[in-house]
């Protein structure tokens, strides 16, 4: 059924449709509508779940870790400082191989205080063993949360679905909300190979100072490798039932494009317009949307970008003292492999909610075409420099 | 004094990794004796993270979930929520935390769980310092005690955590001692029958940190109770105080002097600590209706 939903409500609908059994969360702008709607749904009976109202995000993550380990499908949502506070527990969730799902409403970190969108929060958590998606629309947010449970429960790793604060969370769009029985057909009831069970007692997370430790960590990496295929399978199966499909990466007008823009999140929508416009004017430019950031889709990135002349990556965050994280990952995917050697230009734009408008993206393309070599590894757009 | 326990049915097995004379080991035995096999243990970082045994071994015959230092109470709350969703209301969820994981880093999550009255049992086995990491002070370290981070002896007294927990109006809060297993087990059995947040503060002697011979564990725990340094009582619904073991009229000195961690104390300092113990005891007897 088609509904007009803000991104936050697209996420809460997805959690309900996924029949989550335990929710725990702590409010932070711009995530609040997600949890308010879920609290309401638990009360009015639309959702049969326990909502544990905790005193911090750190506790929210610990709570759903416990709930999942005891055998329940569990959900939380957060943003920015909340995600940063969870950092330690993100490792606990993935290390315990618990398939929890979290929506993160991307927001800048202070100081100075800022409640608007950028990706510094989730980019800072790339090494925590979480699968990460970045979505472009409210429809994609809803669909990806449902897909996330299928992927997580297949490979036993947690999934973070990132949606741009305000640009999606607080913006209403038409969303096709799937029927419950269709989602039930897509997402089987929750089950884990091991759980806390008094009939079959085991110890979880006990100290391990021998070779098993490294073997267990290697298992996590192997599960990440499997997650790429699991995500493709989840996407295919989703398309069969719901008629929508996203891929791990989405190439847009990349045929014979010498120059390719690389984006994630909502900048992608603006970039599509700019690419259409530039193509009309005869500029050979295409666009690659990175939907899955972890595990990083190395092989398709190589085959899609390896033989281009110039790549322009737009990052909505920066690794201080280095460059944009996405740009660094694209560079690392391309280096040392048997293909051409595109020049990779890394741009930093849209921090703290700063709009990235079509003229910014056009400037990025123009600069990319003009520079002989990248003047630096991070080229800032809109910082007054 | 010891309860008669059937070794074949005990839920804690020999071969655990506690130091000789560790008071936290019998504490676990008494707790599980009361709670039985339908119990899930949540273990934040503490000595017991080690005592339990390394992967793939475990000294406990009940499911055990290790979790981050500060998350004992809320991890248990999550497990509880899941069990309730599955209709498994009869399973006990017991947090087993040290004093650091209770009084300090774990306190925020504990206070929140108590405010929600989550249906969990939280046991603090209190060895009065961060023993796992090498005897650093905690807010449960008593005044006058040496630790590696209070080389001149701690100045401030121990927090009164049972009163703080009682102030949350939880249905049950109690102190317990490894030297009084009957009292311990009967309190735990009573707590098992209550719904909501139940809090236990157990004094657990630590020969390594307290600088005592490992053979004196139970003796020191008994002296703590008899000298009123650690009175045994319970608080129901945040207000009904009951003293469960009568202390003897022993001076605090008898408890402090055998312990190396109090070796630096002067006579005057011991007198000051005695006054503090007397004040606290008088307050407790008033609350328990022994005096007015
Ligand atoms: C966030 C965090 N900080 C510090 C530590 C290191 N650490 C592990 S156990 C411990 C002390 C535990 O003290 P307590 O709770 O009293 O238990 P005990 O070791 O005395 O049994 C510390 C500081 C940790 N595991 N996690
Ligand atoms: Mg301790």
Structure description:
The complex is a heterodimer of chains A (385) and B (292). The mean pLDDT of chain A is 97. Chain A contains twelve helices and 16 strands. In chain A, the strands form three sheets. Chain A has a seven-stranded mixed beta sheet with strand order 3-2-4-5-7-6-13, with helices on both faces. A six-stranded mixed beta sheet of chain A has the order 10-12-11-14-15-16, sandwiched between helices. In chain A, strands 1-8 form a two-stranded antiparallel ribbon. The N and C termini of chain A lie far apart (48 Å). Chain A has two domains: 2-242, 3-Layer(aba) Sandwich (Rossmann fold), CATH 3.40.50.970; 249-380, Rossmann fold (3-Layer(aba) Sandwich). Chain A has helices at 7-17, 32-44, 57-69, 80-95, 120-123, 138-155, 180-186, 211-242, 267-280, 298-305, 325-334, 358-370, and strands spanning 2-6, 22-25, 50-53, 74-78, 101-106, 131-134, 159-164, 172-176, 203-204, 249-252, 259-263, 285-290, 292-294, 310-315, 343-348, 379-380. Chain A is an alpha/beta fold and 385 residues long. In chain A, helix 11 (325-334) links the parallel strand 14 (310-315) and strand 15 (343-348). Chain B has 292 residues and is an alpha/beta fold. Chain B has one domain: 3-Layer(aba) Sandwich (Rossmann fold), CATH 3.40.50.970. Chain B contains eleven helices and eight strands. Chain B has helices at residues 24-35, 47-51, 72-85, 100-104, 107-116, 161-166, 181-192, 207-210, 217-226, 252-256, 267-287, and strands spanning 39-44, 64-67, 92-98, 121-126, 172-177, 198-203, 233-236, 240-243. Chain B has an eight-stranded mixed beta sheet, sandwiched between helices. The radius of gyration of chain B is 18 Å and the shape is globular. Chain B starts with 23 loop residues before the first helix and ends in a 5-residue tail after the last helix. The model of chain B has no long low-confidence stretch (mean pLDDT 97). Residues 98-100, 127, 129-131 of chain B line the site of magnesium ion.
């Amino acid at each position: 059924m088609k509904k007009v939903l803000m991104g936050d409500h697209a996420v809460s609908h997805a959690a309900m449709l996924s029949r989550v059994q335990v929710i725990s969360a702590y409010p932070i702008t711009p995530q609040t509508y997600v949890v308010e709607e879920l609290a309401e749904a638990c009360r009015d009976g639309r959702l049969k779940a326990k909502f544990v109202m905790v005193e911090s995000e750190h506790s929210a993550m610990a709570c759903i870790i416990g709930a999942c380990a005891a055998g329940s499908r569990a959900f939380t949502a957060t943003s920015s400082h909340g995600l940063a506070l969870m950092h330690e527990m993100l490792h606990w969730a993935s290390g315990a191989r618990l398939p929890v799902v979290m929506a993160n409403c991307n927001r800048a970190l202070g100081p100075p205080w800022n409640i608007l969108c950028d990706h510094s929060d989730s980019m800072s958590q790339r090494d925590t063993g979480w699968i990460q998606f970045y979505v472009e629309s409210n429809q994609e947010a809803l669909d990806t949360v449902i897909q996330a449970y299928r992927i997580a429960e297949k490979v036993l790793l947690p999934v973070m679905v990132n949606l741009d604060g305000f640009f999606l969370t607080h913006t209403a769009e038409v969303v096709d909300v799937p029927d419950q029985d269709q989602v039930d057909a897509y997402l089987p009831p929750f089950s884990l190979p091991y759980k806390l069970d008094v009939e079959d007692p085991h110890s979880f997370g006990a100290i391990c100072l021998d070779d098993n430790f490294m073997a267990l960590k290697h298992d996590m990496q192997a599960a990440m490798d499997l997650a790429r295929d699991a995500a493709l399978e989840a996407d295919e199966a989703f398309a069969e039932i719901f008629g929508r499909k996203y891929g791990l990466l989405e190439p847009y007008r990349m045929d014979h494009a010498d120059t390719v823009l690389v984006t994630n999140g909502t900048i992608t929508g603006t970039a599509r317009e700019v690419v259409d416009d530039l193509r009309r004017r005869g500029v050979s430019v295409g666009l690659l949307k990175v939907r899955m950031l972890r595990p990083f889709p190395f092989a398709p990135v190589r085959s899609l970008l390896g033989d281009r002349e110039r790549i322009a990556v737009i990052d909505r965050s920066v690794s201080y003292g280095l460059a944009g994280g996405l740009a660094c990952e694209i560079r690392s995917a391309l280096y040392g492999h048997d293909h051409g050697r595109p020049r990779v230009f890394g741009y930093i734009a849209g921090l703290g909610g700063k709009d990235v408008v079509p003229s910014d993206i056009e400037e990025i393309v123009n600069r990319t075409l003009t520079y002989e070599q990248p003047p630096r590894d991070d080229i800032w757009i809109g910082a007054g420099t | 004094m010891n309860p008669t326990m059937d070794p074949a049915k005990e839920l804690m097995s020999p071969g655990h990794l506690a130091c000789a004379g560790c008071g936290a080991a019998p504490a676990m035995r008494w707790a599980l004796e009361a709670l039985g096999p339908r119990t899930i243990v949540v273990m934040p970082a503490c000595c017991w993270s080690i005592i339990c045994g390394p992967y793939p071994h475990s000294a406990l015959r009940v499911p055990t979930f290790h979790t981050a230092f500060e998350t004992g109470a809320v991890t248990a709350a999550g497990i509880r929520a899941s069990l309730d969703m599955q209709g498994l209301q009869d399973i006990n969820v017991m947090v087993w935390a040290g004093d650091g994981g209770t009084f300090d880093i774990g306190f925020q999550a504990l206070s929140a769980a108590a405010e929600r009255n989550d249906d969990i049992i939280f046991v603090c086995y209190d060895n009065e310092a961060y023993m796992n990491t090498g005897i650093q002070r905690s807010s449960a370290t008593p005044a006058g005690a040496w630790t590696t981070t209070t080389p001149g002896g701690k100045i401030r007294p121990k927090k009164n955590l049972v009163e703080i927990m009682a102030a949350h109006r939880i249905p049950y809060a109690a102190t317990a001692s490894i030297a009084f297993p009957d009292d311990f087990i009967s309190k735990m059995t009573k707590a098992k029958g209550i719904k909501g947040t139940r809090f236990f503060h157990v004094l657990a002697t630590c020969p390594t940190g307290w600088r005592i011979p490992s053979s004196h564990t139970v003796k020191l725990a008994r002296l703590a109770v008899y000298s009123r340094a650690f009175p045994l009582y319970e608080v129901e619904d945040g207000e009904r105080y009951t003293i469960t073991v009568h202390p003897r009229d022993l001076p605090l000195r008898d408890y402090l002097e055998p312990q190396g961690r109090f070796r630096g104390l002067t006579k005057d300092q011991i007198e000051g600590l005695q006054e503090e113990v007397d004040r606290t005891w008088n307050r407790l007897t008033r609350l328990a209706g022994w005096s007015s």
